[in-house]
Structures are given as structure tokens and as C-alpha cells.
């Protein structure tokens, strides 16, 4: 990659952000397209967010992703937010057009992609159970609502946080069938769960031997249930290994990562297609190197 003063800038903001794999897949795609662009990580502490966005305008950054802890904090700093991001209350993709910062959320599209392609089915009678009630769970709730799930159950540890999560949706059409529960409800919920999604960080490297649920709990899944872990390294997580043992379909977070990135790239480049296969391959190669280094099986 040859960077000059004419090279156009894209990036990702977060804190910390050095672990982000977005530069790997985006730069692979930009290179394949032969474009004079570069995608770089910007570590921005929360107290510096506003001044950073002002600075981005002055150095002609064309767009960026936002990750933890900026997905919600950035909203007041943007000129426009599309309806889906407004409903979810989180922005992960920002573009600069007509001297305005415009925010959207491609996490929903990323989450939905494998469910609408590889595992497409009628969801109108299906029940989704979501582990965790943080920012990632918001995109999953919106995705499950778009699928048309009959019931969406969010499970968390603290009743007060769960109530805030439920209240934050107001009367949004995305949360018509949304219910919240503390963790002790899981024995009742898992036997109904046609889709079980882990949005918690439990099982992420380096604590690869952990799972949000016990093998006995996961064994209560109904036949042909889908277990979906937003974690993409290690792959498979302990949670997905347990799910496979009881006959569940397992989906890891790699495809969500790829597809949300591809959706963002289409927005920035104003293209209908981008080289998704190259983005996926670049990440898979990166994971191979990481897994051999960490000896993850």
C-alpha cells in the first residue's frame, strides 16, 4: 500500500481500539478494488470524542466506524441519524456528506446476514433468547424484530439494568414482542429458544474455557435450534462447542463482522457491491495466525 498526501482516509474510533480487526478486512478490500484509500484505527478517549470529530472534518476523513465506548456517545455530535440507528440508540458507521456527519447502524445487517441466507426460514412462530443487555444486544433485538420473531427475550444479571433496557425502547415497533428477565429465568426460556444469541464477552480470548451457560443448560435447547455467538475469536467458542454437541446449528461472529463491515464500505464508497469474499479471507488468515500463536484449538 502506497500512501501519499492524496490518499483518502477511513477508520475506526474506539478506546481501546488496537485489537480491532476492521483495518485487516477493509484494507484488503480497498487494495483489491485498486483504490487510493487507507483504513486506520484511531484510539480516542471518551473525553476527547467531540474534539476528535471536529478534527476529522478538517482533515477530510470520508467516514469511520465507531466501537466501544463511542456507539451511543457519538449520537449528539452527528448532524443526522437514520431511523434504524435512532431506534436502536447506537451508531457504528458514520459518513461525511455535504459537510455533515451522518450516522447509521450496520451491525443489524451484519447480524441478520447468515440468518437470512444460510439459515433462512419462517421466523413468525420462533422464539429468540438473547444473553446480555449491553450495546450489542440492542442490534440483536432490532435484528430479531426485523426477522419477525414471535417473542424476543433478553436475559441479564441486574433487574434495574434490564428495566432501563426495556424502557429505552419506548413504544418502538422494534420492541413490540420484547421481554426482559433475570438470569434465573433461563431454565424456562432455553427449552423454547429457537434462536439463542450470546452478546456477552464470556468466552472471548483469553478466557476461552468459559461459557455463559453450562452444558446442562444448553442441552435443554429444542431440536434444530440455532446458537449464535457474536464472539469471533476463538472459533468455535466453548458456548458453540457445547451447542454443537447437543445438535444445535452454530454460528460464530465472523460473518457478522464481515457483513457489517461490507455494509459500511458500500456506504462510504457509494457502491452496490464490495469484495466480501476478500474481506472474509483476510480475517480468516489473521485468525489462523492468532490461533497458532495462542494455541487455540
UniProtKB/TrEMBL annotation:
Biological process terms in GO annotation: amino acid biosynthetic process; aromatic amino acid family biosynthetic process; chorismate biosynthetic process; shikimate metabolic process
Domain of life: Bacteria
UniProt domain Shikimate dehydrogenase substrate binding N-terminal: residue ranges: 12-94
InterPro entries membership: Aminoacid_DH-like_N_sf, NAD(P)-bd_dom_sf, SDH_C, Shikimate_DH, Shikimate_DH-bd_N, Shikimate_DH_fam
Positions annotated to bind NADP(+): 132-136, 230, 253
Record's signal peptide: none
Pfam families in alphabetical order: SDH_C (PF18317), Shikimate_dh_N (PF08501)
Residues annotated for shikimate binding in this entry: 20-22, 67, 92, 107, 232, 260
Record GO terms (molecular function): NADP binding; shikimate 3-dehydrogenase (NADP+) activity
GO cellular component, one term: cytosol
UniProt entry keywords in alphabetical sequence: Amino-acid biosynthesis, Aromatic amino acid biosynthesis, NADP, Oxidoreductase
Pathway given in the UniProt record: Metabolic intermediate biosynthesis; chorismate biosynthesis; chorismate from D-erythrose 4-phosphate and phosphoenolpyruvate: step 4/7
Record note on quaternary structure: Homodimer.
Membership in a protein family: Belongs to the shikimate dehydrogenase family.
Function: Involved in the biosynthesis of the chorismate, which leads to the biosynthesis of aromatic amino acids. Catalyzes the reversible NADPH linked reduction of 3-dehydroshikimate (DHSA) to yield shikimate (SA).
Protein name: Shikimate dehydrogenase (NADP(+))
Biological source species: Aetokthonos hydrillicola Thurmond2011
Lineage: Bacteria, Bacillati, Cyanobacteriota, Cyanophyceae, Nostocales
Gene from which this protein is expressed: aroE
Amino acid at each position: 500500500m502506497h500512501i501519499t498526501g492524496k490518499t483518502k482516509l477511513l477508520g475506526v474510533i474506539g478506546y481501546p481500539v488496537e485489537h480491532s480487526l476492521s483495518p485487516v478486512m477493509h484494507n484488503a478490500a480497498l487494495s483489491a478494488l485498486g483504490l487510493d484509500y487507507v483504513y486506520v484505527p484511531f484510539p480516542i478517549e471518551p473525553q476527547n470524542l467531540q474534539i476528535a470529530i471536529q478534527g476529522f472534518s478538517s482533515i477530510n476523513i470520508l467516514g469511520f466506524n465507531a466501537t466501544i465506548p463511542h456507539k451511543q456517545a457519538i449520537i449528539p455530535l452527528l448532524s443526522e441519524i437514520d431511523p434504524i440507528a435512532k431506534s436502536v440508540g447506537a451508531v457504528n458507521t458514520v459518513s461525511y456528506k455535504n459537510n455533515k456527519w451522518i450516522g447509521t447502524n450496520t451491525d443489524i445487517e451484519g447480524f441478520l446476514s447468515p440468518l437470512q441466507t444460510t439459515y433462512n426460514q419462517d421466523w413468525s412462530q420462533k422464539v429468540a433468547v438473547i444473553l446480555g443487555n449491553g450495546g450489542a444486544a440492542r442490534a440483536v433485538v432490532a435484528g430479531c424484530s426485523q426477522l419477525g420473531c414471535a417473542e424476543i427475550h433478553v436475559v441479564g444479571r441486574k433487574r434495574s439494568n434490564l428495566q432501563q433496557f426495556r424502557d429505552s425502547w419506548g413504544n418502538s415497533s422494534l420492541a413490540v414482542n420484547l421481554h426482559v428477565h433475570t438470569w434465573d429465568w433461563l431454565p424456562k426460556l432455553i427449552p423454547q429458544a429457537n434462536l439463542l444469541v450470546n452478546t456477552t464477552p464470556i468466552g472471548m480470548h483469553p478466557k476461552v474455557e468459559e461459557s455463559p451457560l453450562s452444558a446442562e443448560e444448553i442441552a435443554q435447547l429444542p431440536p434444530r435450534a440455532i446458537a449464535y455467538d457474536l464472539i469471533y475469536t476463538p472459533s468455535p467458542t466453548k458456548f458453540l462447542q457445547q451447542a454443537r454437541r447437543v445438535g444445535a446449528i452454530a454460528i460464530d461472529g465472523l460473518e457478522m463482522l464481515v457483513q457489517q463491515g461490507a455494509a459500511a464500505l458500500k456506504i462510504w464508497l457509494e457502491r452496490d457491491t464490495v469484495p466480501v469474499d476478500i474481506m472474509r479471507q483476510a480475517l480468516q488468515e489473521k485468525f489462523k495466525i492468532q490461533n497458532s500463536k495462542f494455541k487455540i484449538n
